[in-house]
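Below is how a single chain appears once it has passed through the pipeline. First comes the sequence as given, then the structure the pipeline wrote out for it. We keep one example in the README because the format questions we get most often are answered faster by looking than by reading.
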Amino acid sequence: MIDEIYNYRQSSLLTVPISEEWETLCIKFEEMLTDDQLTMFHKLCDLQSASATDDMRVAYKAGFKDGATAMIEVME
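Resulting structure:
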């Protein structure tokens, strides 16, 4: 159920914009790569993004559970 709530809210959660430094360095770095290296780099970035998403989902679930626990303790 917590996953369903997270997935529903995911599009409305605030995101941090990519920094200008990342953009600048990424463009310069990508220009130095061969096509195969560029493909590999993009796959690595996708894996990093997926990992960060999983981490956020776990943190959201933990925070949700902590909040529910706190509410139960207050009600006692």
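The mean pLDDT is 88.

See the next section for the split statistics.
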